[in-house]
Specification:
The protein has about 60 residues and is an all-alpha fold. It is built from 3 helices and no strands.
Length: about 60
């Protein structure tokens, strides 16, 4: 995996989400086209890692 393009992926996804807020019909079409299985896996891994980190900090 090329981590150099990770920022581009994140910024592109954020732009698609912002476009969905402004124009839901066109935004959802762009968002569906941008979502790939790899992006879903990265998002899921990030959410899981964030959840586990927050949970471990809360218990202290």
């Amino acid at each position: 995996m090329n981590l150099g393009k990770l920022g581009d992926v994140v910024v592109g996804a954020a732009g698609d989400v912002a476009g969905t807020v402004v124009d839901p019909r066109a935004g959802l079409g762009r968002l569906r086209a941008a979502v790939t299985p790899r992006a879903v896996a990265m998002l899921t891994a990030g959410l899981l890692l964030g959840f586990l980190l927050a949970r471990s900090r809360r218990r202290r």
